[in-house]
From TrEMBL:
SMART domains attached to this UniProt entry: CLECT (SM00034)
Record keywords, A-Z: Disulfide bond, Signal
The UniProt record lists the keyword Ion transport: no
Disulfide bond keyword on record: yes
Species assigned in the record: Eurystomus gularis
Organism superkingdom: Eukaryota
Annotated signal sequence range: 1-17
Designated name of the protein: PRG2 protein
Residues of the C-type lectin domain: 41-153
Amino acid sequence: MPPCLLLALALLGTASASHPASGHPRDVPAATAKGGRRFYYAVVTSRRSYSRAEKHCREVLRGELASVHSAALNQQLKELARTYTHFSPWIGAFTTTANGQWVSQWSDASPWNFANWAPTHPHHIVTTCTTLSTRDGLWRSRPCFLLRPFICQY
């Protein structure tokens, strides 16, 4: 990647670093991906609401918030996020009502085939968005308007 692009990405907070101060992007390929496609993941440390995080992933990286489909990928993303932040980042899951029932879904519309909820989560009161704990790797429901770092897949 050209140095000027790296600097621009670093200033925008879109590229994570191999070492937090180095400025070189670090991408982690997915162990498994939907439709046989391999994704790369970037931790964005600037804090945004869930909807702003989604928009950032789409517009800047041409991707989406990360969907997690295995325990191995969950662990990999937890370790990656922990390298750059102690805040639990948004991932691409949300919980809402559909036909009178609470359901969890991925914002990229991929199948819901894995979950790693903390005890008592997800919350079934209002629509919530999901964070991945950098401490224990468990997922927790949070109000979608909170400002959090996030993980993009692209």
